[in-house]
Specification:
Blueprint (H helix, E strand, L loop, with lengths): L1 H19 L5 E7 L17 H4 L7 E5 L7 H6 L2 H8 L5 E5 L16 H17 L3 E5 L20 H12 L2 E3 L1 H12 L8 E4 L11 E7 L1 H18 L1 H4 L10
Parallel strand pairs: 1-2, 1-3, 3-4, 4-5
Antiparallel strand pairs: 6-7
Helix pairs in contact: 5-6
C-alpha cells in the first residue's frame, strides 16, 4: 500500500503546484474618450470611469488607461494612440474599447466618423488586437444625462451604440452595453438626483470651476465609480478569467 500511496502523492504534487501558483499577469488596456480617461488635478472633480476601475483588481492585473479627452476612433488611430497599445500588448492581454461620443460629433470634422467609418475602425481594432493574440471587448458609449419632459431618460447615441453591438455580434466579440446600463442607472436616480453623478457645480463651489459647471456628459467621482461598477458586474458575469481577479478595494480613510 505504501508504494501506491507514494505514487499518488507524486501525481498530486504537480497538480497542487498548478493550483497554488499565482495567476499569470494580465494587462487590461482602456481605449476611449474623456468619459473613461485619467484627469489632471486641475480638472477635478471631473473623473473618468477608468480611474476607479483600476482599484478593483488584484496584483495579477495591470490596468493601462490610454483613453484621452475628445478622441474618436478616427483620432485615436491618427494620433498613434491605438498603435501605442499594439506596441505594448502581449498574448492574453485585454483591450476594452469604448467610443462614440466624439465619432458622432458632425460639427467637429477632425473627430467625426460616419457610421460606416465608425464600424470599419472598430473592426480594425478587433482584427489588430486579435493579431496580437489579445482579447478585445467592445462597449457602447456611456450615456449622457438627458431626460424628456416626462422624466424618462433619452437615448443620446443613436445610431452609434447599436453599431457597436452590431460589430460585436458580427465579429464574435464580448459586448458590454454600457449605454443601456448607464441609462438604467440614471433612470433609477431620476432627473434631479442624477445630477449628483455628473460635473454639476454652482459658481464658487469648487476652485477649479469658479464660474460653476453644468456638464451632463462627464462624471464626478461618484458617477465614475458607479459606472465602473456597471462594467465590473458585466465582467463578473461574462469574462471568467478576469472575474476571479476582481477585488473589493479598501475603504478610503
Amino acid at each position: 500500500m505504501k508504494p501506491i500511496r507514494f505514487s499518488i502523492l507524486l501525481l498530486l504534487v504537480p497538480l497542487l503546484s498548478f493550483l497554488l501558483s499565482p495567476p499569470h499577469p494580465i494587462k487590461i488596456f482602456l481605449a476611449g474618450d474623456s468619459t473613461m480617461s485619467i484627469k489632471e488635478t486641475k480638472a477635478y472633480p471631473e473623473t473618468g470611469w477608468g480611474m476607479p476601475f483600476i482599484q478593483f483588481w488584484d496584483s495579477s492585473v495591470t490596468v493601462v488607461n490610454k483613453a484621452k479627452n475628445g478622441r474618436s476612433t478616427k483620432t485615436f488611430i491618427s494620433e498613434g494612440l491605438w498603435q501605442s497599445i499594439m506596441n505594448e500588448a502581449k498574448d492574453g492581454d485585454y483591450v476594452f474599447i469604448q467610443f462614440g461620443h466624439n465619432d458622432e460629433a458632425k460639427e467637429k470634422a477632425e473627430r467625426y466618423s460616419t457610421p460606416g467609418q465608425f464600424k470599419e475602425n472598430l473592426i480594425r481594432f478587433i482584427k489588430e488586437s486579435r493579431d496580437k493574440k489579445m482579447i478585445p471587448v467592445l462597449l457602447s458609449p456611456v450615456t449622457r444625462r438627458r431626460f424628456d419632459s416626462t422624466g424618462r431618460i433619452i437615448e443620446t447615441h443613436v445610431p452609434y451604440s447599436s453599431l457597436v453591438e452590431e460589430v460585436a455580434k458580427s465579429q464574435n466579440v464580448i459586448f458590454i452595453d454600457l449605454d443601456k446600463l448607464s441609462r438604467e442607472l440614471l433612470q433609477e436616480f431620476g432627473k434631479e438626483n442624477s445630477k449628483w453623478l455628473f460635473l454639476q457645480l454652482n459658481p464658487g463651489e469648487h476652485p477649479n470651476y469658479p464660474e460653476g459647471r453644468n456638464d451632463n456628459t462627464h462624471f464626478n467621482e461618484l458617477g465614475a465609480r458607479l459606472v465602473s461598477q456597471l462594467v465590473l458586474k458585466e465582467i463578473r458575469n461574462n469574462i471568467p478569467e478576469l472575474a476571479t481577479r476582481i477585488i473589493i478595494p479598501p475603504a478610503k480613510k
